[in-house]
Design brief:
Layout: E1 12-20, E2 25-32, E3 38-45, E4 49-54, E5 60-68, E6 73-77, E7 80-82, H1 90-102, E8 104-116, E9 125-136, E10 152-157, H2 158-167, H3 173-187, E11 195-196
Parallel strand pairs: 4-9
Antiparallel strand pairs: 1-2, 2-3, 4-7, 5-6, 5-10, 8-9, 8-11
Length: 208
């Protein structure tokens, strides 16, 4: 048995979109099950996202603190954002988010991991990048708005973040997955063995 996710699509008898929002929508599909029965499945249709685990020379991760209304919390997170343009190169989107949210640039980029955030109810796919060799970005700072207007920044050592993850102090999925993937990569073949930044991403195909 090969432990590797594989694409597959079951027959859809009917589909409708009862809600369309600014960036996402809700879709209802009537899906044929293996026994021939037909069931309705509701899920959020999402453009996809990128996130950046930016690691500085002191082994600290760049974090932002932002209000998230659905969960009624201010969460510590890594920089992240939507893939607003269909087919957008995820590396370019990640570089933009790091600049806009932290006014930072990085010279070394690699793919840390790819995840489906909530595959039982949303088709969102996220690519988490590892960014190293950090420095302050050139030019003016990005004009923040909405939830980003009171955003805080911090740089936290990797070991402390692992402790806070396991203690249940931080909950953002990209932060948790990114930090634990970083630690796992270090304990395995090393960070230089990670996939290159332009590695294919079947969940969200893009042009190089």
């Amino acid at each position: 048995m090969t432990i590797k996710d594989a694409p597959e699509e079951w027959e859809i008898r009917a589909t409708e979109t009862p809600f369309t929002g600014n960036k996402t929508s809700v879709r209802t599909d009537e899906v044929v099950m293996p026994d021939g029965s037909v069931v309705r499945r509701d899920y959020q249709v999402h453009p996809g996202s990128v996130a950046v685990l930016a690691l500085d020379e002191d082994d600290r991760v760049l974090l932002i603190n932002q209000y998230r209304h659905p969960v009624r919390h201010k969460l510590w997170e890594i920089p992240a954002g939507l893939l607003d343009v269909p087919g957008e190169n995820p590396l370019h989107a990640a570089q933009r988010e790091l600049y806009e949210e932290a006014h930072v640039k990085a010279e070394d980029w690699r793919v840390l991991t790819d995840v489906y955030t909530t595959p039982g109810g949303c088709d969102e796919a996220v690519r988490i990048f590892l960014a190293r060799e950090l420095s302050e970005a050139d030019g003016e700072r990005f004009a923040a708005e909405h939830e980003e207007t009171d955003m805080e920044h911090a740089r936290v050592p990797v070991d402390e973040l692992v402790r806070r993850i396991l203690a249940g102090d931080v909950h953002n999925n990209c932060l948790v997955v990114g930090v634990l993937s970083l630690v796992a990569a270090r304990g395995g073949d090393g960070l230089d063995a990670l996939r290159p930044a332009g590695a294919p991403w079947p969940a969200r195909p893009f042009e190089s």
